[in-house]
Design a protein that fits this description.
Keywords: Arsenical resistance. It comes from Pseudonocardia kunmingensis. The protein is an alpha/beta fold. It is built from seven helices and four strands; from the N terminus they run αααβαβααββα. Helix 1 crosses helix 2 and helix 2 crosses helix 3. The longest helix is centred in the C-terminal third of the chain and has 21 residues.
Length: 217
C-alpha cells in the first residue's frame, strides 16, 4: 500500500483523504502499477483542480477519480490492459457543456459496451446547469461530473477523438481518429435552447456508435 508523501500545503484532513485515495488506487491497480506511479498520478491530478476548485473538501475525491481514469488510459497505451472495448474521447473548451453531454449520451446508449471520456482545453469550475437539466429530461444524470483537462495518456488511449470548438488547442497525436463536430456551445443559453443542442448531439452519438459497431439502445 502506498504511503502518500506529506505535503505541507495541505490540511491534515486533505492529507488523510489523499492517503485513502492512494490506498484505493493501489488496490485497483495492484500488479499493474506501483506506489510511485500511483502517487505521481494522484498528486498531479490533485494539482489540476486545486487552483480552480469551488469546494475544497471534494478535491481528494476528484483527484482520485481523475487519477483512476488516467491510470486506466496509461495501462491501455502501454498494453497492460487490453479489453477491446472502444474508447471515445469528447473534447471542447470548458468541458462544462457539449463534451459532458456527449459523454453522458454515449455512456447511456452504449452501457458497458464502450467507454466515454471527456476533457477541456480551459476547464470551467462547474458543469453548465442548463445542460444538466436538459440531460435529466432524458433520464441521464451528469450532475456528478466535473470539468477536467485532457492529458496525453487519455488522448493516446482513445480510439476516436471528437472535438467541439477547442480549435488549435485540441491535441493531435498520430494514429488517432479525429472528428470535429460543429455543435453550438450551450454556455449562456436557456434550457429550451440547450435541448436543441442535446438532440443534435444524440444524433451524432448514435451515428458514431453505429460506425464503431457498438450495439446501443
Amino acid at each position: 500500500m502506498p504511503v502518500t508523501a506529506r505535503r505541507p500545503d495541505l490540511s491534515i484532513d486533505q492529507q488523510l483523504a489523499l492517503r485513502t485515495a492512494a490506498s484505493n488506487l493501489a488496490r485497483a491497480f495492484d500488479g499493474t502499477y506501483g506506489s510511485e506511479t500511483i502517487e505521481r498520478f494522484l498528486h498531479t491530478s490533485y494539482d489540476e483542480f486545486a487552483d480552480r476548485a469551488v469546494v475544497i473538501n471534494y478535491l481528494p475525491l476528484l483527484a482520485e477519480r481523475f487519477a483512476r481514469q488516467r491510470l486506466r488510459a496509461l495501462a491501455k497505451v502501454e498494453g497492460k490492459s487490453v479489453t477491446g472495448t472502444p474508447v471515445a474521447l469528447f473534447l471542447c473548451t470548458h468541458n462544462a457543456g457539449r463534451s459532458q453531454m456527449a459523454m453522458g449520451l454515449f455512456t447511456h446508449l452504449a452501457g458497458d459496451r464502450a467507454i466515454a471520456w471527456s476533457g477541456g482545453s480551459e476547464p470551467d469550475t462547474r458543469i453548465n446547469s442548463a445542460a444538466v437539466e436538459a440531460m435529466a429530461e432524458r433520464g441521464i444524470d451528469i450532475s456528478g461530473e466535473y470539468p477536467k483537462p485532457w492529458t496525453d495518456e487519455v488522448v493516446r488511449a482513445a480510439d476516436v477523438v471528437i472535438t467541439m470548438g477547442c480549435g488549435d488547442a485540441c491535441p493531435v497525436f498520430p494514429g488517432r481518429r479525429y472528428e470535429n463536430w460543429p455543435v453550438a456551445d450551450p454556455a449562456g443559453l436557456d434550457v429550451p435552447a440547450v435541448r436543441v443542442i442535446r438532440d443534435d448531439l444524440e444524433r451524432r452519438v448514435r451515428a458514431l456508435l453505429a460506425e464503431l459497431a457498438v450495439p446501443h439502445d
